[in-house]
Amino acid sequence: MSRAALDSLVAAFPQHILETTDRLGDEVAIVAPAGLLEITTWLRDTPALAFNMLSDVTAVDYLARNPRFEVVYQLYSVSKKHRLRLRVPVGAENPSVASVTGVWLSANWAEREVWDMYGIRFEGHPDLRRVLMYEEFEGHPLRKDYPMQQSQPRMDLRRKERDAVEEYKTLYVDKLAQARKAEP
Amino acid sequence: MNRAIADALAAAPERGVQEDVMVLNMGPSHPAMHGTVRMVLTLDGETVIKCDPEIGYLHRGFEKQCENATWSQVFPYTDRLNYCSPLLNNFGYALAVEKMLGIKATDRCNYIRTILGEMARLADHFTSLGAGALELGAMSAFLYAVEARDHIWDLVEEVTGARLTVSFARIGGLKEDLPANFAERWEATEPRLWDVIKKLDQLSTKNRIFMDRMMNTGVIGADEAVSLGFTGPVLRSTGVAYDIRKDSPYFAYDRVDFEVPVGTNGDNFDRYLVRLEEMKQSISIIRQCLKGLPGGPLNVDDPHIMLPPKESVYNSIEGMINHFKLIFEGIQVPAGEVYSYTEAANGELGFYIVSNGTGKPYKLRVRPPCFYFMGGIDRMIEGGMLSDIIPTFDTINMIGGEVDR
Predict the structure, then answer these.
(1) CB distance B23–A162 less than 8 Å?
(2) Mean pLDDT of B164-193
(3) Is it true that the peptide bond before A47 is cis, omega within 30 degrees of 0?
(4) CATH number of the domain within which B295 lies
(5) Which CATH class is domain A3-135?
(6) Looking at beta carbons, which residues of chain B come within 8 Å of A81?
């Protein structure tokens, strides 16, 4: 990890950095949610830092704390070989944070998993669906108030799970027909 | 699903799609979908327009279980992450907790972890290459590879007592030392492995059918792969030499000499070649480690971390109390958070751990390399043929236990 990267981050965005630590050799910046998009884009695009890989996104549920959640981003620079961790505090009411899918492609599935497991919404995510659990699953299993032995209601058989072809045809054929009509 | 269709629709006129596209469910129970994965494919003839991978069929709540287990009880769960190379998961987790405790494993332990870890990597690559060849119709290559893997597993069995669910690592050390005749056994095994690597090479690398199926299929560019979070052989096949063993060495990797093979095209064939070369490097690492294997103690000398010897547990009250406390309350890990990463067979295996100062993890997140492969596999598949999915899915070597946790 790199102390220099953390220092330059603090120097560039003093208003958004709430706290920094480097315990056990891991440089960490706690970032205000408002500055997340700006900071991540800057971290990726600054040539001296070049954090071009988002290794991982996860969240931690500190049930008793306020704000309750923390979304954690592990960044890595393949060229500079240094790491940085960002932590973004998120409140318990309608938890949501800006999506970084526009900055790193790996955020797509990683944020889907955080939504699935913790129920934290990512504003601007193109396709925020559950990824490990099924659509009908109730609750978010990794929250600390989700009991270990919680059972799920029995769900009905999906009678017609996906009438994809049908849907495709109506939508697509209509569209094509219209496009052809429009041609002179 | 609807999004997938909508996207395909939007793109359809430019791609010149026919009016009757087909939606095909590949998996979850399909012989080539390792583990259980479903891919919802939108096909135009045999060309894949849209691929929507769906995972989670093997989800068993790894993280939730770990939050309710002591730090040591997590080891058996890590065996079941990447079940092709359980030793590497064991060691990765042990390293993470050791980083949190601020302790360093002994020299001897580091060397043994390197040796066993590379053996696990060999077994993983043999499985991956063998299964990959099998699914392209090369039965004999598969049989040779599985035979070689069995030789490795015989050795692993001799050391750990188990072939698959080894749970061999301990926080601060290992369960046991290597058996006395390990070096001799390895001497006997090594030529057999070379033999199989040579046979695999001869059977596949210049095989016309194999080349046609593998070359220029499942292509991914370097920048895209980095942005998608790809690591391991898949990233290295694009020419990015990112290997944690080299970039931030752990265990004994800074004391051995090895090379990081990289590809150029980022296609299936390059991934195959990278794995083949990595196996040769692994054997060389094991040789060097066995040669330089230092003596000295195996485990850290700290009664707060290591279990006392059985003699002392059964014959002294102090030993018994020590044992009891470590088993029931668990190792007391100071509060804090840590991200530790190792190079597993498929790429960066990370553990993000949060402790609140008790005997159980407050949060234990695994960063599985395969999860990110699955998140980006649609980019490697779309626009290609249906049959190209098989080699692409093989060479990313998705492991269900790791993706779904």
Answers:
(1) yes
(2) 89
(3) no
(4) 1.10.645.10
(5) alpha beta
(6) 247-248
